[in-house]
Every structure is written in C-alpha cells, then in structure tokens.
Amino acid sequence: MALGENIRQILHDKWMSQAELARATGVDCTTISKLISGSRSNPSVELVKKIADALGVTVDELISAKNGKV
After folding, report:
1. 10-35 as b/e: b if 16+ CB within 10 A
2. Most CB atoms within 10 A, among 19, 25, 26, 34?
C-alpha cells in the first residue's frame, strides 16, 4: 500500500479524522489531505515521523502496512 492509503486506513481504524491528525501533528489539513490523496508524494522524514507518532504507530508500520493491518 502507498503511504496515503496507509494513513487513510489507520485513521479509519482509529476513528480519527484528517482534521484531528492535522491538529495532532501541527500540520495544516491541506497537507494531510494531499498526502492521503497522493498528490504530495515525497513528504519529509520529519513529517512522516510526526504522523506516525500522532497515529501511535512506528514509521516502519506507517510506510509498510499491508491490507490495512498495523
């Protein structure tokens, strides 16, 4: 799965909205939306770390989740 699909699935599994993720990471909603849609394909390592922390997963789990299972 692509990073955006993984983020979307984890958000769904945790009943968390994109807006909640944006607030938890200090990133604007547009950036989160672009990551999930795939229109922003090369996020910084720091951003990926922030997202993983906010979702309660490791970076490895975030980038390599398979079939929506973390």
Report:
1. bbeeeeeebeebbebbebeeebbeeb
2. 25
